[in-house]
Amino acid sequence: MRTTRLHVDRERCIGAGMCALTAPEVFDQDDEDGRVLLLNPEPPAAQRAAAQMAAGVCPSGAITLHEPELGGS
Ligand code: SF4
Asked: Which SUPFAM superfamilies does the record associate with it (predicted)?
C-alpha cells in the first residue's frame, strides 16, 4: 500500500497559516509562534488531496511530500 509521508520545515515556515486553513486535519499552527504543527505525517487517503494542496499553497515551501516510488518495494 502506498503511503504519502509529509515533512514540514519549521525553520522555513513564516506562519502564513495557509496549510491549517487548507487541511485542518493534517496541519495546525503553534499558539506560541504561529508556525506550522504537523498533526499527521501520514495522512489517510481522504486527507491526502488536501495535504497536497496545502503543500502547493504554502508561500515558503516549508511542506514537502514524499511519495513512494511506483513499483518499488
Ligand atoms: S502554509 Fe507554509 S508558511 Fe504558512 S503556516 Fe503552513 S507551513 Fe508555515
From this structure: 4Fe-4S ferredoxins
CA of 46 to the centre of ligand 1 (A): 21
CATH classification at residue 60: 3.30.70.20
What pLDDT is recorded for position 55?
97
Q: What is the C-alpha to C-alpha distance for residues 9 and 61, in angstroms, rounded to an integer? A: 9
How many domains does one find in the chain? 1
What pLDDT is recorded for position 67? 83
Torsion of CA 40, 38, 54, 52, to 10 degrees: -40
Examine residue 71 and state whether it is found in any structural domain, yes or no: no
Nearest atom within ligand 1 for CA of residue 34? 5
Residue nearest to atom 8 of ligand 1 (CA): 13
Q: Domain residues for 47?
A: 5-66
